[in-house]
Design brief:
Length: 91
């Protein structure tokens, strides 16, 4: 089974600012965007680990590749019901 993703190792960008320096607004917005992206990447990693544990590497790989293809083509990955209380279902 894969180990947990160490997000701090994945962030390849380095900042020359000291820890006590307050970044300009644009850098602060960029830092927030980086944190958001890192959080999504961690979620994808956790989902991939769960798929591997339950169904194997081939299933996880195929699912992630198919999802990437759908994203690239602009196709929906889930169908969202219009009824109240409905949940998203795979397409």
């Amino acid at each position: 089974m894969m180990s947990k993703v160490d997000i701090s190792r994945l962030n390849l960008r380095t900042s020359g600012a000291s820890a006590s320096a307050v970044p300009p607004p644009q850098q602060a917005e960029q830092a927030e965007e980086d944190r958001s992206k890192d959080a999504f990447f961690a979620q994808v990693g956790e989902i991939a680990e769960a798929m591997i544990a339950r169904h194997g590497r081939e299933f996880a790989t195929g699912t992630l590749v198919l999802a990437a293809k759908f994203v690239a083509e602009g196709r929906p990955l889930v169908s969202r019901g219009t009824e109240a209380g409905s949940t998203a279902k795979p397409v």
